[in-house]
Every structure is written in structure tokens, then in C-alpha cells.
Amino acid sequence: MTQPIDYDADLVRRLDARLSQYVPLARIGAAPRPTHHLRLAGTAALSAIVFTVAGLGFEANAYAQSQGLSCLDAMAKVDVFARTVFDQVRGGSLEEQYAAKARLNAYAFSLTGPECSDGHGGWMPKASPSGAAPAQQPPAQNFTKPTNPASSPTGRP
Q1: Which residue among 19, 49, 83, 115 sits deepest, i.e. has the most Cβ atoms within 10 Å of its Cβ?
Q2: Distance CA 38, CA 34 (A)
Q3: What total of structural domains would you count in the chain?
Q4: CA atoms of 72 and 83, how far apart (whole Å)
Q5: Of 55, 74, 59, 65, whose CA–CA distance to 126 is shortest?
Q6: Per-residue pLDDT for 121 more than 50?
Q7: pLDDT tens across 18-48, in order?
Q8: Residue 97 belongs to some domain of the structure
Q9: Range of the domain at 59
Q10: Residue 21 lies in a domain
């Protein structure tokens, strides 16, 4: 047995008036997922920057060693390398570039301490961390080239 529904129109009107003050919330959708492309591009850019900085550091160290400035600290090596690159990019004649390089080498050798000098104003390599003496170039000897006893492939002597 069903009972009749008691419907009060006045109650419905008052309830609708009271609820009309509240705005229903919009449906909350799922936030867009971050794309992997942006993360991949960021990782690639960061890797490129790291490898570039590391490569420039290795290049500055190699340049300093080739100029006999291995005793300098890292910032001085980068400074000397940057000045060298600037002098090359700046242009000018070869004589101006040679003069700039001579000034730069004089400046770089002024940065070296007494531990890099042999006491006579010359450069001396530092000992290795293991305590072994640095390698020395053997003195030049008179060396004659041996003659080839076999004849040449063309048959000429």
C-alpha cells in the first residue's frame, strides 16, 4: 500500500528561494597531465649546458698545460683561455695577435707562484701527486739515420 505523497507547494517555493542563493560548483575535471616532451626538452637543454661547461673547462685546462701554465688555479686557467679566445675573435693582423699572445703569456706567468719556477726564471713542471719526479726530455744525441739496404720500388738508387 502506497500512501499519497504529501506535497506542500509553499514549502517547495521557500526551499527553492533559499537554495537559489547558492551557485552550484562547476564540474571539476582532471588536470591536464604534463607532457613528456617538455620534460625531455628540459633535460636535453640542461645536458647541453653541462657538457658545454665541462668541455670549456677541459679545453681551458689543456690550453694552460700546452702553454706551461699547469700550476695555475682553475679560475686563472679559464681567464687565460678566455683572453686568448677574445684576442683571436677580436681580429687584427698576425703581428698584433702574436703581440697580444706574448702579453697574455707574460701576464699568465706573472700569476704563477714560486712553486712553478725552477729558480732561474724558467718554468718547471710540478711533481705528480704520487711523489714521482716529472718526466724529463732526454738530452739530444747525435743520431744518424741508417741507410736502407733494399733498393727502392722504382728500381732507382
Answers
A1: 83
A2: 8
A3: 1
A4: 15
A5: 65
A6: no
A7: 988 887 777 777 777 777 888 899 999 999 9
A8: yes
A9: 40-113
A10: no
